[in-house]
Amino acid sequence: MQYYPISLDISGRRCVVVGAGAVAGRKVEGLLKAGGVVTVIGAATSPLIKSLAVDGRINLVKRRYKKGDLKSAFLVVCATDSATVNKAVYEEAAALGILVNCVDSPSNCNFIVPAVVYRGALVIAVSTSGKCPGLAAGIKREIEAVYGPEYGIFLDIIGAVRRKMLKSRIRCDKKERVIRELASSPIPTLIKANDRAGVNAILKSSMGAGYTLSALGAGMQVGGFQDSNIKKR
Question: Residue 143 falls within a domain, yes or no?
Fold first, then answer.
């Protein structure tokens, strides 16, 4: 099957996770990261699920799934090892027109979840269309090694430049050229080396004195050159 890849806005939307074990916990973390309002339904809960419930980050229903639990949900993830539950969850969701993914059960899904690398606003997804999740995970690890946390900061800087240019009277063709040049510049390497002066030199060379980190209102606040993840790399 050929899937249509999309990025889904679930911010503020009700997301139901059926199952409360370790796999469910990983799915919940992803939904929370994207701003979903998460309800977890499951009798046996993992330490992570318990912790999230105690912190008030999720609504935990400590019992087995029953028909009617998916009402008003925007998206459903089923993370159980029960074929019966998977089928029941899929059938209810499908009848209600709800997006549903049953982990490791492709026939009970109307969407699948790719392996994802997050670097701030940069999101890189890898999918094998459900044929070999292990291969997708391996490719994800390779991507993580190439595109480190510095790329999230890099994207924040380019975004600040682009916002300022859009408010200026600079010709459109020059705006496009500058963004292309910045996108292929060595700024990520300079960020990784904490070379603020080097980044400023490239920005000023491309756009002029008004486009330093400080002038952009970026400074250390655009992702932060002091990002702890970068220092550890």
Answer: no
